[in-house]
Amino acid sequence: MVYSNDALQNEHIVVTGATGGIGYETALLVAQLGAFVTVTGRNEEKLQLLGEELRKHTENYFVKRTDITVEEERQDLVCTAEEKLGPITGLVNAAGIAGNYTVEEVTAEQLRNYMELNYVSLVMLSKLVYRSMKANKKGAIVNVSSLSGLRGTYANTAYSASKFAVIGFTQSFALEAIEYGVRVNAVAPGIVDTEMGRAVIERKAAQHDRTYLEQKQHTEDNYPTKKLITPQEVARSIVYLLTDATESIIGETLKISSGSLMR
């Protein structure tokens, strides 16, 4: 453990996409560090399993299934979470979808889906949470972007564009929010060893006529560390940005690239 056990004591952290690998590990870690935690996602079964794990670390948690692309559900999430656990002081926007489509393959509907979940809903949920943060002059928001939000890659137009948008939002919103004591930053991991990350590897394998294991090895070989990034590593980076140790880190994007992208 690289943090004190009370690094987030009595903070109220909301984690979206908590049924995915990064969100799941982040929720567990903030609970271990003393935070009140609200978790949300669309998979009811996985949410209940996460709730059982959270119960081992804290009594101060709230689980709510939410489709964050729906305005009414976003509003209900924020209102109910604050009724249950008090003002929200931290938000981790970890919900998202990934995929690999060339320009010739991608449809307008797919583009809209990527932007709606990966970008629009992230902005609109941040807007809702920001109200109480601004009023209390305290808060931290961490957006999960991607290395694909820093540079383009083959057959990644829709996903990459949505993640570039997240970084642009992070930088611009950070300048507005810091006036009221609210820090906004992002993390940008490469391919993470999660269900979503493994699905990306499978699609890339099909595109390049490789087996899954061959594509996984190819991916790992492109990292100087020669291994995939773990969701726990990403969670620790997110939590770092939530803590008071980062008071002067504003509008930054923390790359988690295993040395594959340096600039």
TrEMBL record:
Family note: Belongs to the short-chain dehydrogenases/reductases (SDR) family.
Xref: SUPFAM superfamilies: NAD(P)-binding Rossmann-fold domains
Domain Ketoreductase per the UniProt entry, residue ranges: 11-194
Organism: Geomicrobium sediminis
Top-level taxon of origin: Bacteria
Protein name, as recorded: NAD(P)-dependent dehydrogenase (Short-subunit alcohol dehydrogenase family)
InterPro entries per UniProt: KR_dom (IPR057326), NAD(P)-bd_dom_sf (IPR036291), Sc_DH/Rdtase_CS (IPR020904), SDR_fam (IPR002347)
